[in-house]
Design brief:
206 residues, alpha/beta, five-stranded mixed sheet, two-stranded antiparallel sheet, 6 helices, 14% strand
Length: 206
Amino acid sequence: MNKGPVKFALLSVLFMTAMLVAACGPTADVIETTPTQVDDMEAIAEVEVTENATSEPQNPDWFSTEMTDVVSGENFSINDFAGKVVLLETMATWCPTCLKQANELQKVKEMLGDSKDVVLVSLDVDMNESEDVLKDYAALGGFDWYLAVAPLTVLRDLGNLYTADLLNPPLAPMLIIDQQGNVFGLPNGLKGAESLYKTIEPYRVQ
């Protein structure tokens, strides 16, 4: 049997294999993409698209959620107060610190007088409390600003977008929403009327 053609064919195969390996270069390390990395890349892409699409801030979903003011019985949303300054507290009727803070808010309301550019909002973040309980609390304390039981969707947004402290009433947490819809957190703890009034003032002149 003539082994020449067989050797030639075998050498040809080895030569072609060597050429292919040389052309491909050194083998790269395989990087596994974890679900977290994928989520991060998608989030970055979404941010870039949003920033390129518009420079105007977009209000969070909870701004458009309708709630019932237990004082007047009327529905409202944070979007209704566009162009105004909103001082928002989260509270519960069983919380002694919240009652003290509400009394300070009452003084702030008196200091504001007939001003229409500042809105006070108290949101009950205890899911076990009803509108009737909050209504009795408001009537007993003489609180006549916007008071509402926060729906679950609002509770989720408050905790996820800002801080879980907003769902802990004894910390006396508060937010300020400026005339453009930007949200700012205030330090935890009982805040006096005079201090709150001075804090609000710079936001009113924007």
